[in-house]
Design brief:
This protein has 754 residues and is α/β, with parallel strands linked by helices. Helix content is 58%, strand content 13%.
Length: 754
């Protein structure tokens, strides 16, 4: 179920239909665009998405040429030839031939595709079932030329008639030219005069005074009466014969066309099926072309009411900004029954993107459930909702005597009636259009009841009570549209986890509203509300700062992990090499020992055999000494070679600890014990203060000085508030902070002891 009936107009889906129709090559494809509707069967949706994704892959492959051409809806013409004696004219027959030829070509092309890679398109080819249409194509090609005109040899009789007609026409032309030249030579006709055609007969344009001299039949005269068109008497009979041949030619063409119609008629059902099949492929091609323009994907689907999107973009806005050379800010959002939260309350300034966020969800969910690929990251998951209900825009109706608020209430009544765990509801500016206190209370009650139904929803609001509601109810969460308070401009970025500020006072100041008006409004609202709104702004700013910090840390950690993994691999290889070297050394030592033992045994034997001959004994001792030197040299050489490898590796092997030490050393070298905040805006000052104190703590600075001046005291208060927050945080070793010495700046600076 979808609500209301004009949901497509509300979410700009009509623009998607218009784009698709402009990409279709046939009226049949455009008709399929009109028939496209919201589906809830996940199998049907998956099949449509797969067809489109496979066609997109074909169109993006430069090495593949997908057949395309004219597709004509021949249903009306084919129904006409069911009556005996009726036929398709040559233009209709040519259109039929081109359409059938394209169907045959497309079927052959799809049959060549890889059946494992292009499963859905292969199934589409098999559904065509090899219709017997090739014979019809050959028959039409035999009768019609490439320009759709009947060939001279379409039949022997037609060939005879056209030969005779051509000869007669040539004879008439020769006779008329002869008459023309004779009269020109006599000076009766100008040299520029040439034969022309009137009522299918060749005639001469002459002055009225020459009618009697030339003789013949006058067929026409000019508007001024100064020229008459005469058929000379010498060619009247020949022209009559030509007209007779033209009638014969026409009757023979009709006979041939009736004969072809009789041969085509038995296959009219197959032809209609093939034409509809081509129209569907045209529709799939248009969806693929749109997906290429949108850089869209076929998301992973689950049969659960869930939203798990990354990098989602509003399709229509994306194309519009792309034409202007701009980019749309992507949306990342998680909601649904298998997510931590089912309802998101979005707050933030006007024109900050709340409604765009809401419409992005509505449009992309609706597109997907109509079988269209959607612009988001491939890691996204989309669920299936049985019901989508929206309350977007001004529904004021003069004819129904409904105010905007009454219309909202009527919508809420429908929401409450049909909402269940399979529903998605989207409410823009909940409770608006009436007295704020009552409107906010009714909106809170409605949203609470909808949440209890198990439905998934997104609500945009300015009401503080709805922001509090999101903090109180399970599976409901706040979201803020971020705003750059320094530049006074929206960032169009959704931050989930905290409520947003309306920045109403800041925007009022920015637009030039008199300051006394703004101050009076501030007093009327009260300090509590102003403080709450200011805290929301501070939270949003701090969160953005820490998100950036965390992102930088993540990048550094990732780099460090990559280096550690690299060196661990190197160390592993080194250990293996060490093991191999030791084993090799053991093997060589054993071999040397065996050689040594053999040499010693031989020496002892020689000494014994020579009975301790002095010369032989000295020679044997010398051999033993030489063996010792060889063994020692080999051992030393081997040891000096593991050492060289270890030294080379150790030079390129910094540890994680040394990397951190280098980072700290770098910060110490650039660190100064004094920060000057004077002249900065509050948000700029706080951002610099946070970064400076991080560095001061990291490098272990003992005492630092913050210069903020006296002025209005705003910068001093900001500095003290932040330092107070740090002093209560066990992770930050802030010992004390106080004013400077009276003779060195006093209250214009703050001394911080770390």
């Amino acid at each position: 179920m979808i609500y209301p009936e004009n949901i497509e107009a509300k979410i700009d889906f009509g623009s998607i239909r218009t784009l698709l129709q402009s990409l279709c090559q046939s009226h049949i494809g455009k008709d399929e665009v009109d028939k496209m509707q919201f589906l809830t069967d996940i199998k049907a949706i998956e099949h449509l998405l797969q067809q489109t994704a496979e066609m997109k892959a074909l169109l993006e492959d430069a090495s593949i040429s997908v057949p395309h051409g004219e597709i004509h809806d021949m249903q009306e013409a084919l129904s006409r030839i069911r009556i005996a004696g009726l036929f398709l004219d040559e233009d209709e027959l040519a259109m039929l031939g081109k359409t059938i030829a394209l169907a045959v070509e497309m079927e052959r092309f799809l049959a060549t595709l890889d059946t494992e890679r292009f499963v859905a398109l292969t199934q589409l080819q098999q559904s065509q079932g090899g219709k017997p249409l090739q014979d019809i194509v050959r028959m039409i090609d035999r009768v019609l030329d490439p320009y759709g005109k009947m060939r001279d040899n379409a039949s022997p009789e037609l060939s005879r008639i056209r030969r005779e007609w051509s000869a007669a026409q040539g004879s008439v032309q020769k006779t008329i030219l002869s008459i023309l030249r004779r009269n020109q030579q006599e000076g009766l006709l100008d040299k520029e005069v040439s034969p022309t055609m009137r009522e299918g007969r060749m005639v001469l344009p002459i002055p009225p005074g020459l009618k009697r001299k030339i003789g013949g039949i006058v067929h026409d005269e000019s508007a001024t009466g100064k020229t008459v068109y005469i058929e000379p008497q010498e060619v009247v009979e020949a022209n009559n014969h030509i007209r007779s041949l033209e009638g014969e030619e026409r009757r023979e063409r009709i006979r041939i066309l009736i004969e072809i119609a009789q041969q085509i008629h038995p296959y009219h059902h197959e032809i209609e099926q093939s034409t509809a099949w081509l129209g569907w492929i045209d529709f799939v091609r248009a969806k693929a072309l749109l997906a290429i323009q949108l850089h869209a994907i076929a998301p992973h689907l689950i049969n659960q009411p869930t939203i798990d999107w990354r990098g989602a973009k509003h399709a229509v806005l994306y194309l519009r900004l792309q034409q202007e050379g701009k980019q749309v800010v992507p949306l990342t959002i998680k909601l649904g029954r298998n997510q931590a939260n089912r309802c998101l309350i979005i707050s933030g300034p006007n024109a900050g993107g709340k409604s765009v966020c809401l419409k992005t969800v509505a449009l992309l969910q609706y597109m997907m459930q109509c079988g269209l690929m959607v612009p988001m990251d491939e890691s996204s998951t989309m669920g299936i909702f049985q019901t989508i209900m929206i309350d977007i825009g001004d529904e004021q109706s003069i004819t129904d005597d409904l105010s905007t608020y009454s219309s909202h209430l009527r919508n809420m009544k429908m929401f409450l009636r049909y909402a269940d765990k399979h529903s998605l509801y989207l409410i823009d500016e909940a409770g608006s259009g009436t007295e704020p206190l009552i409107g906010g209370a009714i909106a809170q009650s409605v949203i609470t009841t909808l949440h209890q139904s198990g439905a998934t929803g997104i609500v945009t609001t300015h009401y503080t009570n709805l922001k509090h509601l999101a903090e109180e109810l399970d599976q409901m969460i706040n979201g803020a549209m971020l705003y750059d308070r320094g530049a006074m401009r929206p960032l169009f970025q959704l931050s989930i986890g905290q409520a947003g500020s309306s920045f109403a006072l800041e925007i009022a100041k920015q637009t030039g509203l008199p300051i006394q008006i703004v101050q009076q409004a501030t007093e009327l609202v009260g300090e509590d509300h102003i403080d709450y709104d200011k805290h929301l702004q501070d939270i949003a700013r701090d969160k953005r700062y820490w998100e950036n910090k965390r992102q930088n840390i993540r990048q550094r950690e990732k780099h460090l992990e990559e280096r550690i993994a690299y060196y661990e691999t190197e160390i592993g290889g080194l250990k293996q090499k060490k093991k191999e070297i030791l084993q090799q050394a053991k093997d060589e030592a054993a071999e040397l020992l065996n050689q040594s033992n053999a040499t010693i045994e031989r020496t002892i034997r020689e000494i014994k055999e020579s009975k301790a001959d002095k010369v032989k004994t000295q020679k044997a001792r010398k051999q033993v000494e030489e063996l010792k030197v060889q063994v020692g040299a080999k051992k030393e050489k081997k040891v000096m070679h593991d050492l060289r490898d270890l030294k080379a590796l150790s030079k390129s092997l910094p540890s994680g600890q040394s990397t951190i030490q280098n980072t700290i050393r770098s910060h110490k070298l650039s660190f100064t014990n004094e920060l000057d905040l004077r002249g900065l805006r509050a948000d700029e000052a706080l951002e610099q203060l946070i970064a400076y104190m991080d560095d001061a703590i990291m490098v272990g600075a003992g005492t630092v000085t913050i210069l903020h001046g006296t002025g209005t005291g705003a910068l001093k208060q900001l500095t003290r508030d932040y330092l107070k927050k740090l002093s209560h945080d066990k992770m930050h070793p802030i010992h004390d902070f106080h004013d400077g010495d009276p003779d060195r700046g006093g209250a214009g600076l703050t001394i911080v002891e770390i």
